[in-house]
């Protein structure tokens, strides 16, 4: 029987959600490909999963309702086995910020790209791309 890691302390999950774009599923696929090139990730045993988004509540908190253009798109989950949380968190933050900066340079009219990153058992980390217009981004390289 193949060995399967079930110990919570042996794995870290990071949930990624792209919002505010016309095609969030394509953006998730692009973000995944971007992260696969990162040295902090390629050195670690990891897998990717898709999970349904938790329901969003309306402003009054009573009924589920659409939050943005990403309704119906599953979250992308990065599962890292035996990770050192500090290195992964720092590397993830830098990589996601750079991907989002580039994505914002290519955004279509009406898009407000954002990435939400949520780690194991913790609250959402600040959106590395918030506010929507980062200083120093000119759109030209």
Fraction of residues in H or I helices: 25-40%
The geometry reads as: globular
Radius of gyration: 16 Å
Q: What structural category characterises the helix and strand content?
A: alpha+beta
> Strand-and-helix sequence, N→C?
EHHEEHEE
Mean pLDDT metric: 74
**Largest beta-sheet details:** 5 strands, antiparallel
How many runs of DSSP E, i.e. beta strands?
A: 5
Strand order of the largest sheet: 2-3-1-4-5
Descriptive overview:
With 141 residues, this protein is α+β, with helices and mostly antiparallel strands. It has helices spanning 24-36, 39-42, 85-105, and strands at 11-19, 46-51, 75-81, 114-119, 124-125. A five-stranded antiparallel β-sheet has the order 2-3-1-4-5. Mean pLDDT is 74; it is low at 1-5 and 122-141.
Helices and strands in order, then pairings?
Layout: E1 11-19, H1 24-36, H2 39-42, E2 46-51, E3 75-81, H3 85-105, E4 114-119, E5 124-125
Antiparallel strand pairs: 1-3, 1-4, 2-3, 4-5
């Amino acid at each position: 029987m193949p060995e399967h890691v079930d110990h919570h302390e042996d794995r870290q999950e990071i949930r990624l959600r792209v919002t505010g774009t016309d095609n969030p599923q394509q953006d998730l696929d692009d973000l995944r490909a971007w992260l696969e090139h990162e040295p902090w990730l390629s050195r670690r045993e990891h897998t990717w999963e898709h999970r349904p988004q938790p329901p969003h509540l309306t402003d009054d908190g009573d009924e589920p309702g659409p939050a943005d253009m990403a309704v119906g798109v599953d979250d992308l989950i990065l599962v890292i086995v035996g990770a050192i949380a500090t290195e992964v968190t720092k590397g993830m933050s830098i990589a996601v910020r750079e991907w989002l900066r580039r994505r914002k340079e290519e955004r279509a009219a009406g898009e407000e790209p954002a990435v939400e990153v949520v780690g194991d058992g913790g609250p959402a980390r600040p959106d590395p791309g918030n506010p929507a217009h980062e200083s120093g981004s000119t759109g030209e390289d």
